Each structure stands twice: as C-alpha cells, then as structure tokens.
TrEMBL record, chain A:
It comes from the Eukaryota. It is found in: Cytoplasm, Cytosol. The keyword Nucleotide-binding does not apply. This is Glutathione S-transferase. The keyword Ribosomal protein does not apply. PROSITE patterns: GST_CTER (PS50405), GST_NTER (PS50404). Its EC number is 2.5.1.18.
Automatic annotation (TrEMBL), chain B:
It is an enzyme of class 2 (transferase). Its EC number is 2.5.1.18. This is glutathione transferase. It catalyses: RX + glutathione = an S-substituted glutathione + a halide anion + H(+). The lineage of its organism: Eukaryota, Viridiplantae, Streptophyta, Embryophyta, Tracheophyta. It holds the Pfam family GST_C. One of its GO terms (cellular component) is cytoplasm. Belongs to the GST superfamily. Tau family.
Length: 223, 236
C-alpha cells in the first residue's frame, strides 16, 4: 500500500477533519506541519492551484480541498463508511455539508463585526443558522451521521472546539444548552468520541492563536 | 430502474445551476417534467420542497426532493446506474474532477460575480480589480486543465461529457451573452485558448446546445440585473 502524507496546520479545523477521517479509517499517515507564512515546496508543488492545506498525498497522488479529500478517503478506504449507503441519504448529507460551508460567511461576520449593530445582526443570523442545523439536520439523533459520526459531523466538528473560542473572543455566547440544547449536546458527544478527543488542538494555544489572527486568515488554512 | 420513476425538475430558464441538472438528465436519457419557476413569485411546491433555501434547481424523484445542483448531479449519477457516467470510477480521478469543479465554481464564479456587481455599481477601479481576479483564476484553471487535455483540443464524441464539462459549460457556456451585456471579454481565446476551445466544443454537444438559454433573452436579463439588482445571485 502506498504511503500517505498529510500536509496540515495545527490550528486548522479543515486539517483536523482529514486527521479524524484517517484515524476513523485506521489509515497510517505521516503528518507534516506547514508554516503558512513560509509554505514548503512540497505544498506548493502538490497544490499549485491555491497552495492551501490540507493536502493529502497518497503515493504519487495529491488531493486538495478538505471536502474533496474526505470523499477520496471514504472511497479509497470504504470500511467504516462516512457517508450513508442510500443515494437519497447521501444527497441529504451532502446538502447539509454545502449549507455548512456556505454559512461560513455568517460565522465570519459573527467573528469580525466592527460595530455593535453589526455584531447584533451577525449574532442573530448565527443563531438562526444554528437553529436550522439543530432542527433540520440533527433532529433527534445523537450525531449527524445517526448512531455514529459521519462526514457531516466531521465537517461541523469545528463547532465543538473552535467555536467557543470565537465566542469567548467576541464576548457573545450563542451555542449553549438553553438556546440550542440538542446541538450543544452534540458538541459534548462529539468531543467524547475517542478519535476526536485524542485529536484536538490544545485549547489555550488555540485561544492565543486566534487572539492574534483575524477570521480572514481561516480561508488560508484551507477551503 | 425505469418505469416507476417520476422525475420533476423545478428551474428557471437563465439559471446555470438548473442548466447543469438539465444537461445531466438529457445525457443520461432520463425522462423528466420541467417546471419553470417565477422567482419573484415562487410556487408553494418549491417552498415546500426546498424550505431551507427556497431556490432552484430542485429535483423531485418519486416525491423526494433534492436541492443544490452539484448534490443533484451526484444523486443522479448514483441512482441511474445505466447509461453514460459523468464521474470517473477511480477515486483519484474523481477527486481531481471534484477539486476543479469546486475551484471553478467557488473561486472563478465568485470573482466573476463580484466583478458583475462592481460593474453594476460602475466603480471602474473595483470592477477592473474584480475582472483581473477572474482572469487570474481562469489562468490557474487553464494550467490545471492541460492535465485533462494533453493533446490540447477538447472535442466530444457521443455526448461523452462529464461532471467538470457540465459545471464549466453551465457557468460559461453563455459567455457571449455575458460579454455582449457587459461589454467586455470574459473567455478570451487569446488569454485562455484551452478554456475557450473547450467551452466552444461543449456548446456544440446537443444536450448542451439545447439547454443554452436564448442569447438575446440572456443579454436582456443580464443588462436588467446590472441596472436594477446588483446584489442578486443568479441562483435564486
């Protein structure tokens, strides 16, 4: 079996999605930490189009874009599937993945508002989005993937660990047990899954990192 | 699969996202009913089938709705297993196709949309900057595509087009209408010869040709949008 390398960045949720997927599948890989202010030749050569992490290198094949990498992993190592079997259920999962990605702009605004009015608006919109996710995507299930975590859980995984840091920096709490009980429960359950628990960046390091960075840099962490 | 299938597509004639679903259905030979939506007065059915976004396209298959054009394409591919395939079998080849489809859709299209918005606001400098970004993205795309067309000239026999072809021609197939409406070149054969010849070749494929919106109607719509609704997305 050809070797697997992952080019990533310690603070990136996009990078972590791929780590979680590889670990869930039991795939051994070599992790290479990228200095985003001084990108390696390996990164530039393997993702010339946008030079972003994560990049998965499998033998002589390089795959970029975290969502594309996740589907590649799921198709290449089909045991412990991350997507459901039925075409309609898969379409539903992919729909919510797209939704989560699209709403990135809403969360950006939540983090990056300049005025009190902007903050209020962004907060309101964030709560609306999270309510939709809670009601329509999660429903009464433990995980988005049902009994076990699936692709959508990995894509939304950043809410379980990165989002409360943003809330802390912004000074506004939205994802709490009273406002969004099921989604909040999901963040707790998600973090308890062994593969996830063992593969999260240190919280205080992460907090310090985001204090100095703007949300605008997150796109440079991948997507 | 065949007889029991009822397929309805809710769409709008000018939408590139709807067009890519139509092209896919045609290539696969899947019979479907088409329902034209008036986006200023959306039908109850559309709102019911896509309550989250209230947008077209929505594909309804035996009563079950699927929304988001690329999600629909993957659904069609997985559900109708006979007939031509739009995605490669090999996971790596599929990953390459998905990467470039995402690139052209997110990066090039966003830049193009931003440039249309700034053109609408008649802000010369912002517009120029946005167009420059579009060209840069197209150049990256052009370079990346040399891998797909090593012999240089794309041509398509037997309507043998795939996912990436469909995404590309849905976004840029009507570039001549866009160019006439905006008075600038978007897909320039001198700047991006491969993309230009690719789009031109795709427009000759019957399934694509049939789905191309009427030129003059498209020009009029783009000019209208430019004058009146600079923030309107074309997936609406």
């Amino acid at each position: 079996m050809a070797g697997v390398k992952l080019l990533g960045f310690w603070a990136s949720p996009f990078s972590h999605r791929v780590i979680w997927a590889l670990k869930l599948k039991g795939v051994s890989y070599e992790y290479i930490e990228e200095d985003l202010s001084n990108k390696s030749q390996l990164l530039i050569h393997n993702n010339p189009a946008d030079k972003q992490i994560p990049v998965l290198i499998h033998g002589d094949k390089a795959v970029a874009e975290s969502l594309v990498i996740l589907e590649y992993i799921d198709e290449t190592w089909p045991h412990n599937p991350l997507l459901p079997k039925g075409a309609y259920e898969r379409a539903t999962a992919r729909f919510w993945i797209k939704f989560a990605v699209e709403k990135g702009a809403t969360f950006y605004a939540f983090y990056n508002s300049n005025t009190g009015e902007e903050q209020e608006k962004a907060t309101k919109e964030t709560v609306e989005v999270l309510k939709i996710i809670e009601e329509e995507a999660l429903g009464d299930e433990k995980f988005f993937g049902g009994e076990d975590i699936g692709l959508l859980d990995l894509v939304l995984g950043w809410f379980a660990h990165w989002f409360d840091i943003i809330e802390e920096l912004v000074g506004v709490k939205v994802l709490d047990a009273s406002k969004l009980p099921r989604l909040h429960a999901w963040t707790e359950n998600f973090k308890e899954v062994p593969v996830i628990k063992e593969n999260l960046p240190d919280r205080s390091k992460l907090l310090a990192y985001f204090k100095h960075k703007y949300f605008a840099h997150l796109p440079s962490l991948d997507n | 699969m065949g007889e029991e299938n009822k397929v309805t597509l809710y769409g709008m004639w000018a939408s590139p996202f709807v067009r890519r679903v139509e092209i896919t259905l045609k290539i696969k030979g899947i019979p479907y009913e088409y329902v034209e939506e008036d986006l200023r007065n959306k039908s109850q059915l559309l709102l019911q089938y896509n309550p989250v976004h209230k947008k077209v396209p929505v594909l309804v298959h035996n009563g079950k709705p699927i929304a988001e054009s690329l999600v629909i394409l993957e659904y069609i591919e997985e559900t109708w297993k006979n007939g031509p395939k739009i995605l490669p079998e090999d996971p790596y080849e599929r990953a390459k196709v998905r990467f470039w489809a995402s690139f052209i859709q997110q990066q090039a299209r966003q830049s193009l949309f931003d440039s249309l918005v700034s053109a609408a606001k008649s802000s010369g400098e912002a517009h120029e900057k946005a167009m420059k970004e579009v060209f840069e993205k197209l150049t990256v795309f052009e370079e990346g595509m040399k891998d797909f067309f090593p012999s240089g000239t794309p041509h398509f026999e037997d309507e043998n087009i795939g996912f990436l072809d469909i995404v590309l021609c849905s976004l840029f197939g009507h570039h001549k209408a866009q160019e006439e409406a905006l008075g600038l070149k978007i897909i320039d054969p001198e700047r991006h010869p491969l993309v230009y010849s690719w789009v031109t070749a795709l427009n000759e494929v019957p399934a694509v040709k049939e789905s191309l919106p009427p030129h003059d109607k498209m020009v009029a719509l783009i000019q209208f949008l430019r004058r009146n609704a600079p923030h309107r997305s074309s997936e609406a």
